[in-house]
Amino acid sequence: MRILLTKTQIADKVQELGAQISEDYQDKNPILIGLLKGSVVFLADLMRTLTIPHTIDFIRASSYGAGMTSSGQVRVTSMDVDVENRHVLLIEDIIDSGVTLQYIKEVFLEKKPASLCVCALLDKPASRRTSEKVDYCGFTIPDVFVVGYGLDWNEQYRHLPYVAVVEEQKNGP
Ligand code: PRP
User: Fold this and answer.
1) Is the CB of 70 under 6 A from ligand 1?
2) Fewest beta carbons less than 10 Å away: which of 31, 77, 114, 128?
3) CATH number for the domain harbouring residue 23
């Protein structure tokens, strides 16, 4: 594995995003909704940089099967969040094809939120298969498979404090 983003680079960027979100959402009491499981680490750090009142919740959606290949299928197994008239900020660890985001946004828009924006730590525009845009983006990265800071390889490596590139794709890191 090769480190792509260090712990310090990530912390600085999260602080920056938090400052911007705090400014933009002042008096809006936004609800941060994390997509499990990858967003857990990012959301936990991001919320502690916010200086405004806000609430959090989580939904469970999955688009990948085992290993590194996207199935292109989105499965939502838990989505019991009331967002009507709330300013919603979807929190993602990474936007890859954009398929998950497109699906989740459609579902949430039906619930009539006051607004709906997306904050992702990582954006991989080279592998996008939809027209999804990220409103608050931490880092734009090339089309490589990354783990750490919430991102997994077969459920492992989510705990790494940095983001690393997996270079051996056949057998994992
Ligand atoms: C990852 C990531 C996003 C999605 C992005 O989740 O957290 O939700 O894939 O991919 P896409 O843009 O191609 O749809 P994953 O399904 O791996 O589940 P996890 O968060 O539990 O790791």
Assistant:
1) yes
2) 77
3) 3.40.50.2020
Of 27, 80, 82, 96, catalytic: 96
DSSP state of 127: G
What is the best residue among 94, 140, 156, 159 to mutate for testing ligand 1's pocket, by most ligand atoms within 8 Å of CB? 94
Residue 97 lies in a domain: yes
Residue 54 lies in a domain: yes
96 is catalytic: yes
Ligand 1 binding pocket mutation candidate from 63, 104, 119 (most atoms within 8 A of CB) = 63
Residue 2 resides in a domain: no
Write out the chain's pLDDT in tens, 173 residues: 999 999 999 999 999 999 999 999 999 999 999 999 999 999 999 999 999 999 999 998 866 554 445 556 676 766 678 899 999 999 999 999 999 999 899 989 999 999 999 999 999 999 999 998 899 999 999 999 999 999 999 999 999 999 999 987 555 55
In short, whether 63's Cβ falls inside 6 Å of ligand 1 is: yes
Residue range(s) defining the domain that contains residue 95: 7-142
Pull the structure tokens for residue 23.
């400014």
In sequence order, the 6+-apart residues with CB closer than 8 A to the CB of 131 are: 98
